[in-house]
Write a structure and sequence with these properties.
- It catalyses: pseudouridine(1915) in 23S rRNA + S-adenosyl-L-methionine = N(3)-methylpseudouridine(1915) in 23S rRNA + S-adenosyl-L-homocysteine + H(+).
- Belongs to the RNA methyltransferase RlmH family.
- Its EC number is 2.1.1.177.
- This is Ribosomal RNA large subunit methyltransferase H.
- By secondary structure, this protein is α/β, with parallel strands linked by helices.
- The chain has one domain: Alpha/beta knot (3-Layer(aba) Sandwich), CATH 3.40.1280.10.
- The protein contains five helices and five strands; from the N terminus they run E-H-E-H-E-H-E-H-E-H.
- A five-stranded parallel β-sheet has the order 2-1-4-3-5.
- The longest helix has 19 residues.
């Protein structure tokens, strides 16, 4: 299985990017992982929230294959402990899916088209984080999940 993380906009912070890269490299030992960035919408300030979500939604849909399982990182999604998230990933791998795609939306969330296409929603916290930080948290939690599944000490380190 491949895990893909789609995110709107690039990471401006070099230290954050270095940490994200570190966890991406660690993940290579466990699973095929890809982080793909979708460019920010041009002239977004001239668009309504709905128009911006719709344009971002179109770009997200273009990045999906027909058999991809889409999971949204959404404030109204399901909450997991790290252990339960590792079990969730194990179930996805056991189900034989080829690609699991997590998506971090833009500043206003997702379009209706994306919500309709999604196979689920996960919330990292009731708090709001910058989209750049969420990338790090997702990559780190995917890595943590695999170390839990392999009974490696990272989770309790």
């Amino acid at each position: 299985m491949t895990i893909k993380l789609l995110a709107i906009g690039k990471t401006d912070s070099k230290p954050l990017q270095q940490l994200i890269s570190e966890y991406e490299n660690r993940l290579k030992h466990y699973v095929r992982f890809k982080l793909e960035t979708i460019a920010d919408i041009k002239n977004a300030k001239n668009l309504s929230e709905v128009q911006q979500k719709d344009k971002e939604g179109e770009l997200i849909l273009k990045k999906l294959g027909p058999t991809d399982i889409l999971v949204l990182l959404d404030e109204n999604g399901k909450h997991f402990s790290s252990i339960h998230f590792s079990k969730y990933l194990q179930k996805k791998m056991n189900s034989g899916i080829k690609q699991l795609v997590f998506v971090i939306g833009g500043p206003y969330g997702f379009s209706d088209a994306i919500y309709n296409k999604a196979h689920g929603k996960i919330s990292l916290s009731k708090m709001t984080f910058s989209h750049q930080m969420v990338r790090l948290f997702v990559v780190e939690q995917v890595y943590r999940a695999f170390t839990i599944l392999k009974n490696e000490p990272y989770h309790h380190g």
